[in-house]
Amino acid sequence: MDWDKRNIIEKGNYDVIVVGGGIAGISAAVSAARNNLSVLLIEKNVNLGGLATVGLISWYEPLCDGEGKQMIGGICEELIKLSAKYGFDNLPSKWGGSGEFPSSNERYSTYFSPTVFSLALDEYVLENGVKIRFDTLGVYPVMEGTHAIGVICESVEGKEFFGAKVIIDASGTAVVMERAGVPTVVGNNFMSYVAHGYQVENAENLKETGNTCKFRKWIGVGSDMFGTGAEKNMRELKGITADDVTKYILRGKKGLLKKIKEYEKNSYDIMTLPGMAQFRTIRRIVGKTDFNAIDGEIFEDSIGSCGDFRPNGKGKHYQLPFGALYNEKFDNLIAAGRIVSSPQGDGWEVARVIPVCALTGEAAGNAASLVVKNSVKVAEINIKELQKLQKNNGVLF
Q1: Domain check: are 105 and 239 in the same one?
Q2: What SS3 class is residue 57?
Q3: pLDDT digits (tens, 9 = 90+) for 159-197
Q4: CB 199 within 8 A of CB 263
Q5: Cβ neighbours of residue 167 closer than 8 Å, sequence gap 6 or more
Q6: What is the pTM of this model?
Q7: How far is CA 363 from CA 42, 43, 217, 395, in A?
Q8: CATH number, residue 34
Q9: Are 154 and 232 members of one domain?
Q10: What are the E-state strand segments in the chain?
Q11: Of 77, 76, 107, which is closest to residue 91 (Cα–Cα)?
């Protein structure tokens, strides 16, 4: 039955369309725009930042290896500085922070205000010449064989089409890649729900110390990132259906309400609830090359280096292959962020966090510029040119 007979509104054409305004999408859009391309950033929410801001996971994981060596630079470093520019932070002075309220560890990382950071991200993206489209859901790539010519979106205006020479999928769900026919793999997620709030003792501590960083408290229910504390017999949620997302959110809210019912009602407040489901590993592509987070592994098509944010990851050094960002059968589709080709386990855990999302996003934007300017397929990019673009903006190898 042909029930959807609405006219498609043609809205314009761009060199690059980035679907998803999280950290990976922001980095991709800014990177592409700095190469003098016209760029549209499509975001389903009304705030940028994805899990880092809308999802309230407001810790910028380390840019260093835990032993004093910086592993990631470029846009990733610009963004950690931006996260601390207007709001509170505990970035150590050795990494350029004020050092006024440092954390107990000296890694190149910081907590930040998700609301203030999101406001700063608008300014950052617009100043770099990117056009933003909020409250718009990128729902389907329009394909001519293995070549994408644009994206169909849904917004308050209706069903829209935006044309593009390159599409970067930074959705966190691989929605563009999967619907274009790129092979994908679905991940597993334990139930974890985090809100932000405060209790009276936090306010008292703020008055005594002036340390705003310790005022906003993460209030969580369910498991931690490793599954510790997961409910017995609770299946791992996928996040690829609306039913899954709804169950995840309702279960999280129910658990949070149960938890705060134990508080004295005048002793606390919930400041912010997450504006998106806090799934970590929803779906990733099957790319030309897998990133498996093997310490010391070298790739000829490396797009840069990264460390490991986990406590047992200190001293580990990884390279990211460009082959993890695309499937060679598709001409002009590039992945960025937590959907890159990184199998469940160490690879996906390392790849899904802010610094690596920024790194893959920056590489995706630079790669898109080479596709457009040289009229080549993604798989035909001169890797030396891509690496030069990365290095010119401070990416470390």
Answers
A1: no
A2: coil
A3: 999 999 999 999 999 999 999 999 999 998 888 999 999
A4: yes
A5: 16, 17, 18, 19, 141, 148, 150, 151, 176, 332, 333, 334
A6: 0.95
A7: 18, 20, 34, 9
A8: 3.50.50.60
A9: no
A10: 9-19, 39-42, 59-60, 110-111, 131-133, 137-144, 147-155, 158-169, 184-186, 192-199, 217-222, 268-272, 283-285, 302-306, 318-321, 333-335
A11: 107
Task: Answer with the one of 272, 291, 308 that is the final residue of a domain.
Answer: 272
**Closest residue by Cα to residue 107 from 55, 71, 53:** 71
d(CA 217, CA 213): 9
Contact 203, 195 (CB under 8 A): no
Write out pLDDT tens, residues 290-343: 999 999 999 999 999 999 999 899 999 999 999 999 999 999 999 999 999 999
Point out the domain boundary residue: 272, 304, 328. Answer: 272
On whether residue 123 sits in a domain, the answer given is yes
Q: How far apart are CA 64 and CA 68, in angstroms?
A: 7
Do 210 and 292 lie in a common domain?
no
Question: pLDDT tens for residues 244-272?
Answer: 999 999 999 999 999 999 999 999 999 99
Specify whether 174 is located in the same domain as 197. no
Judge if 237 and 320 occupy the same domain: no
Residue showing tokens 């990416």: 395
Looking at the chain, the whole-number percentage of residues with pLDDT higher than 70 is 95
- The boundaries of the domain holding residue 121 are 10-187+282-392
Task: Quote the percentage of the chain above a pLDDT of 90.
Answer: 85
Two structure tokens written together for 108: 């190149």
Rounded to whole angstroms, the Cα distance separating 216 from 67 reads 29
Judgement on whether residues 69 and 196 belong to the same structural domain of the protein: no
Task: List all residues 6 or more positions away from 52 whose beta carbon is below 8 Å from its beta carbon.
Answer: 22, 23, 58, 60, 114, 117, 354
Q: Is 315 left (phi over 0), alpha (psi -120 to 50) or beta?
A: left
Which of 239, 327, 328 minimizes the C-alpha distance to 285?
A: 327
The Cα 85–Cα 257 span in angstroms is 34
